[in-house]
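Lay summary. Proteins are chains of building blocks that fold into shapes, and those shapes determine what they do. In this project we predict the shape from the chain. Here is one chain we studied, written as its sequence of building blocks.
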Amino acid sequence: MKKHKKRRIYRQFFRLIFFLILLFFITFFLAGGFYFFSPRTWQHVGDFLPKLEAVLPANQQTDPPKKISTTDRLSRMLFIKRAVDARIDRNHYVKLRDIPEDMQNAIIAVEDNRFYSHYGFDVQGIMRATLVNLQYGEVTEGASTITQQLVKNLFLSHEQSFGRKAEELLLSLDMEANYSKSEILELYLNTIYYGSNFYGIGPAAEGYFNKRPQDLKLPEAAMLAGTPNAPSLYSPYVDFMLAKKRQFIVIDAMVRNGYIDETTAESAKIKPLYLAEPAE
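And here is the predicted shape, written in a compact code that computers can read:
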């Protein structure tokens, strides 16, 4: 009888302890404690670490990619904002508010039309891109999301391996957890390659049209949005007719996704484009 009584007392004691712990965590989270576990909270810890040496984004590096240690990979995952800041050229950086909506919408329509509804990796987008490419008979839309392309542009080589794809996925999810969609789009527009040695929307707008990004019109924005798919082919300096054909595809994608109507699209297709003189 005494043993049963002791067991009952122990059970009641442990139940009380469990209840108090549960009560503590419920109160903790209701008081806003969940922010402690948010990935964005931990980004501030990176501010206390030594500043990383500035390096070019991966898509601008000409030397073979250097191998990085597991510790560095883990640090990049934990403090993604610190790693991103070390790869961004702030001298030519353009804020999203200074990039026309037509340019933003053109990129989203042709590169990742579910950009605002996925979390960095889009299975449905892969299926959609496959169908669209079959319809046109060529690769007109990519299967990678804008977030995945940003990660590749900043950090990764073009090596096609399981390990690299896994790292790309993890970094994409990390980006989505720590940046807003607007911030990701802004970073992407400032790092993608537009052909003819123009990296970022600022140099591309200036180089192709002798304009600031905010002054781009729909036909110009659509042509620029078409170049990242194959920069060496779709640069208007390389093959203007091919670039024009790609511009039509971008404009059609904008219609298909509801960004512009048919009348606006047809008007944009026939408007003349005036290219700047290419630099020597």
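What the prediction tells us: The domain at 49-270 is CATH 1.10.3810.10 (Penicillin binding protein transpeptidase fold).
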